Each structure stands twice: as C-alpha cells, then as structure tokens.
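Anyone have tokens for Citrate (Pro-3S)-lyase? Sequence:
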Amino acid sequence: MCANLAAPVSRARSLLFVPATKPERFTKALDSGADCIVIDLEDAVADSRKDSARAQLLHHLPQLTPVQLTRTVVRVNAVGTPWHEADIALLRAWAGQGVTVMCPKAEAAEALRGVAQRLGAAARIVALIESLAGLDAADALAHEPQVARLAFGHLDFQLDLGMHATTEEPELALARNALVAASRRARLPAPIDGVTTDTGNAERLAIDARRARAFGFGGKLCIHPAQVAGVNETLGHTKAEQAWARRVLEEAATHGGEAFSLDGRMVDLPVIRAAEVIVAACETNATRRPI
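Reply: yep, here.
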C-alpha cells in the first residue's frame, strides 16, 4: 500500500520499455508521450553485457531532470540472479530521488521486503508477476508497504504454465482478474497489463488495450513509441468523462456532502470519489509533457 499515490508510476497509463544499453534513447522515450519509461536491465540485456549496461545507466541517470527521474522505472534483474544485488546497490541513491524499481519474477513478499529495505524507505516498487507462484502470492505482494503497483508479465506467465494462449487470450482471464482483485484489496492503483508484441498492428494494440481496461487494468507496458498514443487514449478518460467528472465535483461543492441528482442520476460519495479520480488523473497527465 504505497503511500505516494501521486507518483507518476501510480497513475501511468503507458510505460515504455527502453534497453539500458541504449542510453541515447532515454530522453527520446521520455519525450514520446509515455507517462513513464522502463529502463530495462533484465530481458533486453544479454548476460555478457549486464555490467556494462549498469555502468551506462549510472552514467546517464544524472543527466535526467528531477521530474524525468520521477517518470523513470528501472527493471532490475530478478532476486537470486548474479546481477540483482549490484542492480539494487546502484539504485539505492536514485530510489530516493524518485526512480521506481520494477522487480521481475516477483513471487515472495519476503523477497520484495528485502529489496525495499536495501533501497530505502522512500523507494517504490512495481511487482511484475510472471509465474503461477507470483499469481498465488499476488495478495501478499500487493500488501507490501512499498509496492506501488502490480504488473502482469503475461508472456513469461504462459511459459511458466506451458500455455499457448490464442489471440484474444481468454485463457488468461483468470490471472488478469486475480491481479485486478489483489490490487483492489490492497487499495493499490489498478495494475499494469503486459505488452503487445505486434508493434506494427494498431488494431491489435487497440483490442489489447480495450481488453485491459475492461478487466480493470489502469496501465499497459509498451515496447515501441508508436504504441504510446493508442494506449494513453484507451486507458485514459474521454473528454465527455472529464466534463462529467468536473460537473459532479462542482455540484458536490454546493451540496455540502449530501447526495444529489445530476442528469437524472443519483450522485453520492462513491460517485464523487470516482469523479475525483478522473479529474486527478487528467490533471496529472496534463502536467506530464515532454521536458
């Protein structure tokens, strides 16, 4: 139950991966319109280049502005791998400056707690669930105090279970529902769905993003800048929804906390809270412009 719900990662719709070995792309990714970027030390980096990738990251993080740092997530190598401890040691100072850490293969609350302790009290963690063990532990992971959000690594999840999901992925419905439910029980922001691998297929991306929203996900991982706008549009709020939310809050201010009717529908506290979420999200995203 992360305390800093105002952090960009907590409200991010689009999170764009960029390899740590391509530091020249960091600023371009931040300027792409993505709410957050995910600098990848894990899958995007060959074992032989792990140390050099970490060194490149250390060199380039100081070049980012304070606001850019708050929009930066770093996916480290998993707990138990030969590179994990060095990744965490590097990021300890940066976690205090707003950088979020994504922990892949998240399966045990105790392991995440250890990562949080080494990163420091200000650190935020995205727990990336990629296995049956991770799904079984989803509630415990979500309740770790420094976990800001859950994310679904649906490709590795299929590998773990020997699954071959069809195009519409109904086979993954149970897992998606479980992550949304775990996030809600822990009062976390809505979780982050996995990538769409067909980077040139806008229709596929739109279908995947709509499915994510239908399940209750609030964000989606992207692997190409061309995917960002579509994800932001689908997982954001329409102009009509924004206008409705502002009207609700304006009317609520005149009713002193009492229920009232708007356009023939009752508005009570849960509806007002929903309107507040929409307005806050839109205001946050409006300030998240390329720097």
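The chain has two domains: 8-235, 239-286.
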